[in-house]
Specification:
single chain; alpha/beta; D-Maltodextrin-Binding Protein, domain 2; Rossmann fold; 6-stranded mixed beta sheet; 20 helices; disordered N terminus
Length: about 550
C-alpha cells in the first residue's frame, strides 16, 4: 500500500463524519413529497410553517423524510385545474368549502366518486365581510343599526347616491367584488346576494334563482359595481391605497381588514379607518379546509405524510400564530386576542348568522344567473399594428384578441382602435350581440405597418370612451403595444394630465389595462398610464398573451 493511499484511507472516516454532521446525509435520503395547492389568502401564515416543518425533518412510517411543497393559487382556478388533470396535488386547501360541492359534482361525473370525501378539517377561519369606510358605515346608522345586502341594494338604487344620506360630497355609492368564476370571495358574494334576495339563510333552491324578485335584487346590487377582478387582495389594495373616492365598500375577508388597521394604527397608512360589516342577512366563513384529494395519484404514504403536516398546522403554537395575521384559529379553545378586536375594525362576536353552503348544482346555477345580471362593460381596445409587430407577434396578438372577444358577453359593448403612425377605427362602440362575427373576421385581417403613435391613440380612445360610454356600464380600455411612442403629437405628461382630470368620479372613471408585449415595450410608461386610472399593467410574451387577456377579462 502506498503512503498516499494509506493517508487517504485513514482520513476517509473523518470526511464521512464531517459530511454527516453537516446534514449532507439528506442528499442521499429518500423523501415523500406532499404537494399542496392553497388559497393565497393564508400565504403569510402557511409559508413560514412549511419552512419550519421541512427544517424539522419529519419522517413517514417507511423512514422517508417528508417534504412539503406548497403553491398559492385561486380557489376556483385550482379546482378547475385539478378536475382537468392539469394539476395533481396531494392536498387542496381552497379559501373556503363553498366550491367543494361544485368540484365534487364535476369530479364525480368523470371519475364516479367525490374529489373531497367527507368533511375536511378547517385550518384557520375568517368571515366574509363587507369592508366599508368607518364614516360611511356610521352615515348608514352603524354600529347601532345592523347593515347588510339590503342596504347595498338601497344605495345602489338611489340615483342621488350618498346625497340621500346627507353627504353629497361623497358622490355615488361605489362597490366591488371579485369575479365569481375565478375567486372564492366572488362566489360567496353572489350566493349571499341570492340568499338575501330570497329572504333565506338555508336551503337555497333553483326555484329561488328563477324568482324575478331575486334576479332583480341581484341585478340592482351589481349595478353599483365599479369593476370585478380575479384577486380579493387586488381589491383590498385598491380600497386601502386609493381611498373612499375609488371604492365605498367591497367584499373582503375579515383578516384583510385587521391587516390594514394594524398598518394604520402603526402609522404606516394614512387612510380613514375601515370596518367590517357582517351582513345582517348572513354570510359565509372563509374556513380554509385541508382536503387530501381522493385521486389516483395520491399514494397511501403521501396521504399519511399529508395528515402529519395537517396535525402540525392544527397544533396550538401554529394556531396561535394565525391570530397575529388577523385569522381566527380553527381551535375554538384558543382565546381571541389583539389584533382581533374592535380597535382593528372587527367584532369577534360576529357573524351571528352563517349561510348554508348550497349544493353544487345550485351554486353553478347562481353563477349562471350572475352572468345574466352582472354589470356590462363598455370596452375600448387599442392595439399596436406598427411594423415591429410583424411575424409571430401579430399572429399571437390576433389569436389572443379573438379569444378575448369570445370571453365577453353579448351585453358588452366593444370598440377597436388600431394604431401605427396613423389611427384606424376598426369598429365603433357597439354591442357584441350585433357585431361579434364581423369583429372576429376583421381581427383576422389585421396588417402591420408604420411607426408607433401610442399616446395619441390612448388619448383618442379614452376621450371616445368618456363621450360614448353608458353610465350604467363598467368603462374600461385595454392597450397593447410592443414598442415605445415614436409618432404622437402628445407628450406622456399631457396624456397623464388628461387621464387624471376627467369628469368621472373616482372609481367610476374608466380603467386602463395596459399590456407590454415583448422586451421592447416600455413597461414604466404603460404602468404610468394604467396606474393613473386605477387599472393594471401586464407584461406578456407571444407565449402567454392569451393568458394575460384572460386575466383582464376577469375585471368585467
Amino acid at each position: 500500500m502506498t503512503k498516499r493511499k494509506a493517508l487517504y484511507l485513514l482520513g476517509l472516516p473523518l470526511i464521512v463524519l464531517t459530511l454527516v454532521s453537516c446534514g449532507v446525509q439528506n442528499l442521499f435520503q429518500s423523501t415523500t413529497v406532499v404537494t399542496i395547492v392553497y388559497g393565497s389568502e393564508k400565504e403569510g401564515w402557511l409559508e413560514p410553517l412549511v419552512a419550519e416543518y421541512n427544517t424539522a425533518e419529519h419522517l413517514a412510517s417507511d423512514g422517508t423524510r417528508i417534504v412539503i411543497e406548497a403553491e398559492a393559487m385561486g380557489s376556483v382556478e385550482s379546482a378547475e385545474r385539478i378536475i382537468s388533470g392539469d394539476l395533481q396535488p396531494t392536498v387542496w386547501s381552497p379559501a373556503s368549502s363553498i366550491y367543494i360541492p361544485v368540484a365534487n359534482d364535476e369530479w364525480r361525473a368523470v371519475n364516479g366518486d367525490d374529489l373531497v370525501v367527507g368533511t375536511p378539517n378547517d385550518l384557520v377561519l375568517s368571515p366574509v365581510v363587507i369592508a366599508m369606510w368607518d364614516p360611511m358605515a356610521r352615515a348608514l346608522g352603524w354600529p347601532e343599526k345592523e347593515l347588510g345586502w339590503s342596504d347595498i341594494f338601497e344605495l345602489s338604487a338611489a340615483d342621488e347616491g350618498w346625497d340621500a344620506y346627507g353627504f353629497p360630497e361623497w358622490g355615488e355609492f361605489k362597490f366591488g367584488h371579485t369575479h365569481p368564476e375565478f375567486s372564492n370571495s366572488g362566489v360567496t358574494s353572489v350566493l349571499a346576494e341570492a340568499y338575501a334576495g330570497a329572504g333565506k339563510t338555508a336551503d337555497l333552491t333553483s326555484a329561488d334563482l328563477q324568482d324575478p324578485a331575486v334576479q332583480d335584487f341581484m341585478g340592482q346590487v351589481e349595478k353599483s359595481v365599479i369593476h370585478y377582478g380575479r384577486s380579493t387582495g387586488f381589491f383590498a389594495l385598491q380600497l386601502f391605497e386609493r381611498g373612499p373616492s375609488y371604492l365605498s365598500a367591497t367584499v373582503l375577508y375579515e383578516n384583510l381588514i385587521v391587516e390594514q388597521e394594524t398598518k394604520r394604527l402603526a402609522g404606516e397608512s394614512f387612510q380613514l379607518p375601515v370596518v367590517a360589516i357582517y351582513p345582517k342577512e348572513g354570510t359565509f366563513w372563509s374556513n380554509h379546509p385541508y382536503a387530501v384529494v381522493n385521486a389516483p395519484w395520491v399514494s397511501d404514504i403521501e396521504r399519511e405524510a399529508a395528515l402529519d403536516f395537517e396535525a402540525f398546522l392544527l397544533d396550538r403554537p401554529q394556531q396561535e400564530q394565525a391570530i397575529q395575521l388577523g385569522f381566527r384559529p380553527a381551535d375554538p379553545t384558543i382565546q381571541l386576542t389583539s389584533p382581533l378586536d374592535q380597535d382593528h375594525g372587527i367584532d369577534i362576536n360576529q357573524p351571528s348568522t352563517i349561510l348554508e353552503v348550497p349544493s353544487g348544482e345550485v351554486t353553478s346555477q347562481a353563477l349562471e344567473l350572475w352572468q345574466e345580471v352582472k354589470k356590462p362593460v363598455d370596452l375600448v381596445i387599442v392595439m399596436d399594428i406598427s411594423g415591429s409587430m410583424s411575424g409571430n407577434k401579430i399572429d399571437a396578438a390576433q389569436d389572443s384578441l379573438s379569444q378575448f372577444v369570445d370571453l365577453l358577453s353579448d351585453r358588452d359593448r366593444v370598440q377597436v382602435i388600431l394604431f401605427s403612425d396613423q389611427l384606424y377605427e376598426m369598429t365603433p362602440l357597439n354591442y357584441l350581440s350585433d357585431q361579434r362575427q364581423q369583429l372576429q373576421e376583421q381581427i383576422s385581417t389585421i396588417q402591420v405597418q408604420g411607426g408607433t403613435r401610442l399616446y395619441d391613440a390612448v388619448s383618442v380612445g379614452y376621450e371616445q370612451l368618456l363621450t360614448n360610454a353608458d353610465e350604467d356600464h363598467i368603462k374600461a380600455m385595454v392597450v397593447l403595444t410592443d414598442g415605445q411612442d415614436t409618432d404622437s403629437g402628445m407628450r406622456l405628461d399631457e396624456l397623464s394630465d388628461q387621464l387624471a382630470s376627467n369628469s368621472s368620479e373616482g372609481g367610476n372613471a374608466p380603467k386602463i389595462f395596459t399590456i407590454a408585449f415583448g422586451d421592447t415595450a416600455d413597461s414604466e410608461v404603460l404602468a404610468t398610464i394604467s396606474d393613473t386610472t386605477g387599472g393594471r399593467q401586464f407584461s406578456s410574451t407571444v407565449d402567454n398573451i392569451s393568458d394575460i387577456y384572460a386575466q383582464i377579462a376577469t375585471f368585467f
